[in-house]
Specification:
heterodimer, A: 268 residues, 6-stranded antiparallel beta sheet, disordered N terminus, B: alpha/beta, 5-stranded parallel beta sheet, 46% helix
Chain lengths: 268, 123
Amino acid sequence: MQQTQTLSSRFTTLILHTSAYINSRKNELLTTHALKAFWIVILLIAAEIFLAVISIPVYLASSKASTSDATAQYKLRRVVTMSLLMGLFIIWLIKLIIIIALSFQQKNLSIKQTQEASQWQPATIQHVLSSAPDKNLSVPTLTAVGERNGIFNASGKAIPSSWLVITVMKDPATANDHPKMYMGQADAQGNFTVSQDAGAFDLPDSNYLASAQTYNTQSLITSLASPWAKFSTSPTFWEQFLGQFDRWLNILALLVILLALGVTVLTL
Amino acid sequence: MSKIILVEDEQILLKALSIQLLSAGFEVLTANNGEAGLELIKKEKPDIVLLDILMPKMTGFEVLEHLKKDEHLKKIPVIVLSNQGSEAEKQKGLDLGAADYYVKSDTDLSDLTNKVKAVLEKK
């Protein structure tokens, strides 16, 4: 039985030209030197793969007894495949945007003066470091404190080149909760950023208060504490929403793949 | 319906060209090497032959030589469709009696189909 499906002339010409290209590269391979031969081999592999892909409709068109059904089925499969690839690409693009957006987000961060600073000396620090704070030592200013990508950091302004102690307490704290302390040094302009070292203790999801003190490394005496800064390591609404959204994206991607497979199998 | 014999060793081209020619309204018979192609031509006596050159068992030039020697077959128009694009090869094909010589890399199939129709109308 004669096959009467049509393939567009341009499409068949493309197959012809690709085949001709492959032949000419093969001939060239016979007479070329090693370095160029390597490049020609790469081109040949790519061309062969390309020819295999674009010639799929030819095999579909010539393998079925029916005339229009095969073409329609091929078109359906092609639409399904391309839609699947495009859908997956869009899903992964959205996920990439989410990942990038989340990486820039720093939880936090409000500076709140809950009490007079002098009344709120972190007792643990005084116990460890000195008997009484030095009221003459300049109190640093916390301008930002929070967590980014699981790493705590605090920054602000202090005496140039001075050492600082950042105390972090859970809010509200229980008897089992102990303050965590971070140390750092201001630069020559008095700016400081104190970050948690890699591998140091984590801050579980919760609300926290942070305070900074200048620390005199000679006398081992600290200044009065800065006003408590409130921050949270709990996922924000958007983080929770985006986390759920990411999960739904994965489920959607899986459904798209299953749908495409199902359509392909049903149309075999 | 005009009968074409297509002699081409590359399977995908054989299929693609067959479908193209079928859709143009021809009856198409195929062979994938020179020897089988010659046998088919002798048996079917087509209206026109599309012939590749570089093929196993017998090249297109050898097929042309056989056709030229046969009184019954030498009048069948042959269009060569080859990867060999040198002037020497083209001339050789035309000297052996080919009606036309197309280089695959330079050929648009719609032109080829029109050429086939034009050759058949001249007959």
